[in-house]
# Entry
Amino acid sequence: MCKVFFGCTVVMLIVTVPNVAFSQNSPNMSFFITSAGSGNGANLGGLTGADAICQKLATSAGAGNKTWRAYLSTSASGNQPAVNARDRIGRGPWQNAKGVVVAQNVDDLHSDKNKLGKENSLTEKGTQVNGRGDNPNTHDMLTGSDSNGRAIPGAMTCSNWTSSGDGSARVGHHDKQGGGDNPNSWNSAHASSGCSQQNLVSTGGAGLFYCFVQ
# Structure
């Protein structure tokens, strides 16, 4: 009886250990789309709040030992100069939760050579956004940026990511498809119809955005 029991125990260990290892996700991940936004439209609590969302989600995926930054630009306001999204995210390279390198550096990221798109622009959970993964009916990503990752003059950031009412935000298409004046752009496809959660959803979004390791 003891020999039989011991044999069963060994079999159980062999089966369960791989599952534990798999559940640790991808600690080498350095890029993802947020699986959830603030829930309050484009009001993310400013850049600080957006960065905190990135950090929290990365931590939940086992990659919280790095400094994460939201890919968002802001407009000049008062004594505060404009901030370019491309200047916030380090030098690269960046890889998704499945280990695919989506860009080697900042210039590569903002070129036609990047590996972004529906298949590789994954959430921190390793799931596709516009598909079977989280938020299956959206492809708009908040950026407030032009195609080079720089701030756009004018009100295109929903009061620098503090408004869920008046205003508008420049968004990109994570799948590089759809409508707008630049539909194939991952970071600067068109303007949202407003800043509230309802406005973002009606345009094709859900208040999601990109996160990169700095």
Observations:
- The two ends are 57 Å apart (CA to CA).
- The beta strands are 31-33, 68-70, 94-95, 101-103, 140-142, 170-173, 190-191, 205-213.
- The domain at 29-213 is CATH 3.10.100.10 (Mannose-Binding Protein A; Chain A).
